[in-house]
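About this split. The held-out portion is used to measure sequence recovery: a designer receives only the structure tokens and must propose an amino acid at every position. Recovery is the fraction of positions where the proposal matches the reference. Here is one held-out target exactly as it appears in the evaluation file.
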């Protein structure tokens, strides 16, 4: 089937094969659908699922027994350079001051790039912090994966150490409830400094 413009006076009217055009549009939609599905699936894992958390908001829970040192799920997101990361960090900070929502999803990847995980298909963005975590985030090239650092029982919440800096400890009280919780979301390596500051205040 072809389509010719009725107002075209040319001896050789423009002929557009309608079926061919339609087919091309459909296949572009299919490609987009396949890409979105692949993106979505990259952010999921049969090892875990999202549920309401006793620590904060939503959390990620084991759907089966997970042995120590298992690659559980990818932390997916947008690759951004440091300038973009800083600008997003500032706007997230401003937003959090207005709304009280302190969630930050930007991960340091290298000295050039960060990964902004604030996309709905990134399940791992909902993993909460704990002072006694059962997971760690490992960087593999330009990708980040969450690995178990202990055996994890079915139904256990997945957690990792956010590694926040001690300088802003007052902004991030920790509600992990684990034995030995230091009361604030601060990276383990800075716990001695945190203890010194807390003692200095009392
Ligand atoms: C990346 S989000 C984690 C998912 C979050 N639970 C949610 O529902 O959006 C990080 C935010 O969760 C909260 N959070 C995570 N771990 C926490 C903890 N141990 N104690 C208190 N709040 C925590 C903090 O507000 C933190 O800024
Ligand atoms: Zn804690």
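Reference sequence for scoring:
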């Amino acid at each position: 089937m072809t389509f010719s413009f009725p107002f075209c006076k040319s001896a050789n009217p423009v002929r557009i094969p309608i079926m061919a055009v339609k087919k091309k549009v459909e296949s572009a939609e299919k490609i987009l659908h396949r890409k979105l599905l692949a993106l979505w699936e990259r952010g999921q894992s049969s090892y875990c699922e999202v549920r309401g958390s006793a620590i904060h908001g939503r959390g990620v829970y084991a759907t089966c027994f997970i042995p120590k040192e298992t690659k559980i799920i990818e932390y997916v997101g947008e690759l951004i350079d440091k300038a973009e990361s800083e600008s997003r960090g500032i706007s997230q900070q401003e937003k959090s001051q207005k709304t009280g929502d302190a969630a930050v999803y930007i991960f340091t990847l290298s000295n050039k790039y960060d990964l902004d995980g604030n996309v709905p298909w990134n399940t791992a963005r909902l993993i909460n912090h704990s002072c006694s975590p059962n997971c760690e985030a490992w960087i593999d090239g330009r990708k980040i994966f969450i690995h178990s650092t202990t055996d994890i029982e079915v139904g256990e919440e997945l957690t990792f150490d956010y590694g926040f800096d001690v300088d802003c400890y007052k902004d991030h009280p920790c509600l992990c409830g684990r034995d030995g919780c230091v009361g604030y979301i601060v990276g383990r390596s800075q716990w001695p400094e945190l203890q010194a500051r807390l003692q200095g205040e009392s």
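Annotator remark: Confidence is low (pLDDT under 50) at residues 1-10.
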